[in-house]
Amino acid sequence: MTTPPSSFALTDAIVFTGESFVENHAVLVKNGHVADLVPMARRPVALPALSCANQILAPAYIDCQVNGGGNVLLNNQPTVQGVLHIAAAHRKTGTTRLLPTCISDTPDIMCTAQHAVREARKQDPSILGLHFEGPHLNPSLSGAHDSSLIRPISKEDMTHYCAEPGELFVITLSPEQVSPDQIHQLVKQGLIVSIGHCAASLEQVQAALDAGATNFTHIMNRMPPIQTRSPGVAVLALNDKKSYAGLIADGLHIHPELVRLIVRSKAEDRLYMVSDAVPPAGAETPLPYTMGGESVRPQPDGRCINDKGVITGAHHTLGECVPIAIRDIRLNPERVLRMASTIPAQFLGLGHSLGKILPGYQADIVALDHMFKAQTVWRDGVKVN
Predict the structure, then answer these.
(1) Which of 68, 82, 241, 250 has the smallest CB count inside 10 Å?
(2) What single-letter DSSP state applies at residue 338?
(3) How far from the centroid of its chain's Cα atoms is residue 339's Cα?
(4) In the chain, where are the structural domains located?
(5) What are the strands, taking DSSP E only, across 280-341?
(6) Which of 144, 234, 157, 154 lies closest to 195, judged by CA?
(7) What contacts 296, CB < 8 A, 6 or more positions away?
(8) How far lies 58's CA from each of 24, 32, 130, 340, 377, in Å?
(9) Of 63, 105, 157, 276, which one is the catalytic site residue?
(10) How far, in whole angstroms, is CA 366 from its chain's centroid?
(11) Is there a contact between 314 and 321 (Cβ–Cβ < 8 Å)?
């Protein structure tokens, strides 16, 4: 990690502010924040200039669901070094903020992972908090999770699930396993409640939303198929204008045609992208690993498949999903860049400080080539790749 001057200008690039593309402007960075966005002709000549010719400057990415990276899975290595290693693997492709995610496991493992993430946050501002994906899910929709570890929420869990000051704590659960009263209490304890891996009725899902749930985890994945007389959780997730939804737009988890339908259907300011990345993401040499009690092997096309033939994830970082979504799925570049930065910042309550290149925002910036591949990454105005 190298440190540039505390004040500098990024020049000669097209700038995506999080709202629109702007040409012939310089981004002025001072003390870790965007000080201004000015026409090139008005750039202060005394300010050191870093040319980003033929590149696009965009808000760096925020990933709310990261199971692993750099050949490390949080469940298998719930240590401070494991968490720091995962964050470093994702930074290389433009993700400057993330939520390390622990899938369904024993109470001891999940508690250890929680402690490791909290200690790692003290060392690395990339780590915003944590995401517990499970274990209070529908066993029939467990996917890569070990179904033997899935269970209803207990009084001990309710006591344990409390966010620390300044910590973002997301929990994915199923309304079949957790009551509206329990969801309401979790929200009071500072958690962001997300609905996922569930086959709940529309009434159950609506009750969960009314109790304070605000998000749907990887929409369409591990949700029942849509039926004419029983539309299910996915349709409510698309139609609800207040809730957010994460989308894995890597061309592997969901067919591109369905991705395009989701993007057209969900309110534009409520749909964001996640990687749902597994250990080989960001690794120079992707290696096999174990997940949910199964041996998993990374495939050349990016998928990761266990011994049962179940896709347990993909080894793409969010920074690698962005060009796939634009190039292969043919989504609008502005929409994709917002889904990777601006919208997740809003979902997490950080829309006032992250997700845009505008005055007052933290200088989390990624320089992209014209294939939308990350070239240089800054976090708080410091070059980290």
Answers:
(1) 241
(2) I
(3) 10
(4) 7-58+356-383, 61-347
(5) 289-291, 294-298, 303-306, 311-314
(6) 234
(7) 144, 278, 288, 289, 290, 304, 305, 306, 307, 312
(8) 15, 16, 25, 10, 10
(9) 276
(10) 16
(11) no
The pLDDT value recorded for residue 4 is: 55
**Rounded Cα distance, 382 and 365, in Å:** 9
Using CA atoms, how far apart are residues 164 and 302, in angstroms rounded to an integer?
Answer: 35
Tell me which of 2-16, 192-206, 346-360 is least confident.
2-16
Q: 3: pLDDT confidence band, cut at 50, 70 and 90?
A: low
Fold of the domain built from segment(s) 7-58+356-383 = Urease, subunit C; domain 1 (2.30.40)
The CATH code of the domain at 61-347 is 3.20.20.140
296-331 confidence digits (pLDDT tens):
999 999 999 988 887 788 999 999 999 999 999 999
Count other Cβ atoms within 10 Å, centred on residue 156.
Answer: 9
The DSSP call for residue 52 is: -
36 belongs to the catalytic site: no
Structure tokens that stand for 325 in this block: 């979504």
Phi, psi for residue 128 in degrees, rounded to 5: -85, -20
The whole-model pTM stands at 0.97
